[in-house]
What does this fold into?
Amino acid sequence: MMFEATLLAGVYRVKPRVFGDSRGFFLESWNAEVFRAAGFDLEFVQDNHSRSAHGILRGMHYQTEHTQGKLVRVTAGEVFDVVVDLRRSSPTLGQWHGEYLNAENHHMLWVPPGFAHGFYVTSDYADFQYKCTDIYHPASEVSLAWDDPTVAIEWPLADGELPQLSGKDAQGMAWRDVPLFD
It folds into this structure.
């Protein structure tokens, strides 16, 4: 596996080795020893899988308690995946990173605790899978407004149409109001 730093400290693009032939392909999406050797000593406690249709935006979520690190990937379709730095002590506080994850490039993104995370589906549908370092804790979940003008995420919206949002995401908090991490 290759681990490539992004412009946000702690966020990494992970490129697994893909072995393919006429029958299909094989890749190793998680190996504790390989990650540990690269400096990531992670313990995952929960795996999640969501399927979403074209034009759906999920996020920008995080938890103030039971903060989660996430190893995210797409196994069918494509998404534009985004993280926002919420760490007060970080030189990239309030900045975002976005990239396409899809079933063809097999890239993954390591999102450490201290970031809001979300994605927008650019294909007909997408299967999105992620491993989490802590449990889902709905009582402490926060949703940063996907369209907050201070953060100014450049979503690749289809034909400029507004994304489909859950009620929670439609009521996301403004940047000035979200709780930050030390």
